[in-house]
Amino acid sequence: MTPNTVAPLDAAALAASDQATLIHPHSRIGAPAEPLVIARGEGARIWDATGKRYLDGTCGLWQCAVGHGRAELAAVAARQMETLEFYSSFGDYSNPQAIALGERLLEIAPDGIERIFFTNGGSEGVETAVKLVRFAHAQAGQPERTVILSRTRAYHGVGSASLAATGMPAMKEKMGPLPDGFVHLSEPHARRDDAGAVDRMVAELEQTIERIGPERIAAFIGEPILGVGGMVPPPDGYWDRVQEVLRRHGILLILDEIVTAFGRTGYWFAAERYGLQADLIVTAKGLSSGYLPMGAVLIGKRILELADGGLFLHGFTYNGHPTCAAVALENLAIIEREGLLERARTVGPDLLARLRPLEQLEHVVEVRGEGLMLGVEISDAETAAAVAAGCRRDGLIVRASGPSLVLSPPLVITAEEVDELVELLSANVRTRGADGKRS
Questions:
Q1: Is 313 left (phi over 0), alpha (psi -120 to 50) or beta?
Q2: Domain extent at residue 123
């Protein structure tokens, strides 16, 4: 990676302009907080407009697999823009970069995936998946199959259907009415002493299917590992049992791999990790490492058979954007040639093992993870927010999601940076962040 620099910035003026000009996602309208203005990044590090350096423990929002400041990706984007910056892919239009990316995705996709539909991001991908499963069933003569099964604590996006599928009530407040046809099951989480968790969850699924009627259910959507919900891996055997029930009732499986795909769990797709054959896999984030907005919905054989002959009147202006596709191709190449899948499989468990002693603290509920996505659950959301704030003051970015601190550093994080992450996070958890009281 080539070091990058920026000219000196007037941090105070930027912050004031931000507060006077912008509304941020997840911010309070009319009462803007003073922003942390990020000016540059390199590897697993970012710098704010004052020049202060931070270790990026969240990858922004899980997306920056190959690290910040990759000159290779900037060069690919510039070359592509000089050749063809963009053209529509609606109808029978296409471009070489979208075609090449589609071919590459089919090469690395789990068995059974046969087609690719491009999007600009995760929420669009979930919207596409929900519409596509309903469309496919209707095309096959089963228009009554419209219900989507989801789970509590699931996060699937902020569109219309994607927010309806999301299992976080706070995100839906004052946003209604949302579409009907979404039913939420219990979160796929088992505490260490809950040996019967999988049996209970599967029984709930079976009972819900019986109550609704399998002939009315289009699909089950789930993150292989809950992301925003607190980095929660499912209990052993959960996905095997769920997949068997769905197949028995002819219910399609949508995997939301917006967070988990492209190396985050140590595999190209978490579907491989759990032995799943999904009908649809929704991806984004790591596909381009966030360098340009890009997502893809991977479509399986059953969907294609059901939808055969139907005119799918759905799409987004920037579907198959050639510059985004070119950057995504190079991003996937970097992940492969630098062995980042293997790196997530080795660094992640080591990081998890080094954070596990925090469970001995009275206010730490659980430390958990899979690959390079980890969660530290604290006793309450207020304390978790205080820990995150303390980490940021000390130069480490972590995210408080409810009572959980979520970690998803770039896959290129170095051994020294892992040491720093463990040290800073552990110190702030032990002191409960901003309140300064030792546990």
A1: beta
A2: 73-337
Over the stretch 309-325, which tens digit does the pLDDT of each residue have?
999 999 999 999 999 99
Compute the distance between CA of residue 219 and CA of residue 88 in angstroms, rounded to an integer: 30
- Name residue 38's beta-bridge partners: 48
Residue 193: both structure tokens together: 């002493």
Q: What is the CATH number of the domain that holds 107?
A: 3.40.640.10
What is the torsion angle, in degrees rounded to the nearest 10, for the CA atoms of residue 256, residue 215, residue 311 and residue 92? 30
Shared domain check, 183 and 83: yes
Strands (DSSP E) found in 152-279: 182-185, 217-222, 252-256
Q: Domain boundary at 286, 309, 337, which?
A: 337
Within 10 Å of residue 284's Cβ, how many Cβ atoms?
29
The secondary structure element, H or E, covering residue 396 is strand 396-397
Of the residues 273, 308, 337, the one at which a domain ends: 337
In sign, the C-alpha dihedral spanning 7, 10, 14, 15 is positive
The CATH number assigned to the domain holding 423 equals 3.90.1150.10
C-beta separation of 56 from 81 below 8 A: no
pLDDT of 433 > 70? The answer is no
Angle of the 322-337 helix axis to the 340-355 helix axis, nearest 10: 70
| Section 408-437 average pLDDT | 88
Helices (H), 213-265: 238-248
Edge-to-edge strand ranges of the sheet holding 217-222: 113-119, 295-300, 280-283, 252-256, 217-222, 147-151, 182-185
- Enumerate residues 6+ apart whose C-beta is below 8 A from 318: 86, 120, 293, 324
Tens of pLDDT, residues 5-48: 666 689 999 999 999 999 999 999 999 999 999 999 999 999 99
What is the structure's pLDDT at 191? 72
pTM across the whole model? 0.95
**Which pLDDT band, with edges at 50, 70 and 90, does 194 fall under?**
confident
